[in-house]
Amino acid sequence: MGVSGDRLTVRFRVWDVFSGAELGQGLQFAGATEGWRRMAHKVADQVYSRITGESGYFDSRVAFVSESGPKDARQKRLAIMDYDGANVQYLTDSSSIVLAPRFSPTGDRLLYTSYESGFPRISVLDLGRVERRVLESQEGTMSFAPRFAPDGRTVVFSLTQGGNTDLYRMDIASGATTRLTQAPSIETAPSYSPDGSQIVFESDRSGTQQLYIMPAGGGEARRISNGQGRYGTPVWSPRGDLIAFTKQNKGRFHIGVMRTDGSNERLLTASFLDEGPTWAPNGRVIMFTRETQGAGGRAQLYSVDISGRNLRPVRTPDGASDPAWSPLQN
Amino acid sequence: MTLLSKAALAGALLALAACSNTLTGDDAMTAGGPGSAGLGAGIAGSASDPTSPAYFQQSIGDRVLFEVDQSSLTPTAQATLQGQAEWLMANPDYTAIIEGHADEQGTREYNLALGARRANAAREYLISRGVAGSRLKTVSYGKERPIEVCSEESCYAKNRRAVTVLAAAAMS
To answer: What is the ipTM of this complex?
Structure first.
């Protein structure tokens, strides 16, 4: 490691002591000294991927909702930080409720829901230019639960009209909107498969919240959740093999994963209230919101490996909810 | 990839990493939006004047409550809404936003949709009793704005609500 003025240079090699051989070639990163954390995370990603053979997730960020104030007067602000809780930056003030940020596939934009107009509406925020645009919506409707398609140009979301909530998709540039579901039940929390061909979502069409998969253009949906209790907030893993979800059963909340056909359900956590999983870019770790009960109830972010091990809180300056993990930054 | 190009790429990415500006709402509202503070603040008029919003809130009742995960109106809720409808018919200078809410036992998106069902059930009932639909808007806060903070049924029961918040028609 060398510092010259405000320039920092890092060189490293990885040596396998058991095989007595070097893992890959030596590598060098250089940049401004203030970017030292970023460089350390890039080195960590290289080490992780050389040892495990999988891509890393350390050079990534997490968008979330920062929470302060008592439970009956909670203030919410959109924020972004390094995946480990460092370098928190606020993207909105707390003058109106904000919910559930979601990254674009390249990490350059965020979708989120805001009550700034008095009604929930979806905004898209360009992180590089720090510019925001409210997506078009019809008077008298609510729109929420947005998520980007893998093409980065299409958004799938929930739209509520006359008390009924269905799924729609919108071309961001033109505002052209297509209705994807048409049912008197609640359809929400949509998430695309990595290839963009399918959407997993939750619906109470059977009487309780359950998970369904349908073609990305709409059409017949098949139910994939079959265990006891209620299932919500499904998120397709970046590898395409698993669906992470929130499960509510017998007064407890769980974060779990299942295969895309609903088999091999595994619950990773249990508490008074766990919800809203988001995947690390390599599909090995999940971050979620855990809220404690009672008058002093507080929301905090946690991460857990998909093995169910290594459950740990992510430290943030205030309460925190609704995490969204970015893709790797390069 | 050569060392040089990797290093140049890293430098370029680091330069892009900062994003420190804070967006500020142009049209800042109070944190909860209209009416979300529940009882009290800013309700006009005297409760003894039957044409006042204070009378509507306190004597007729500005809210109806719901069973767990339900949006159907109980007989008590229907009686309250009947009173609301009569008041709104007699006081045409007011419009209303009906705010639907859920308790904390549920995921965020589902509770938003559930609150919308509740607000809509109240709106449909008022319309069925003669109130013009053009005077009634709805919004859902899901589980974002509880008025009671304990994690027990006694609090949950009060949080599962639809609140009719009046506004002077000329101002809306």
So the answer is: 0.95
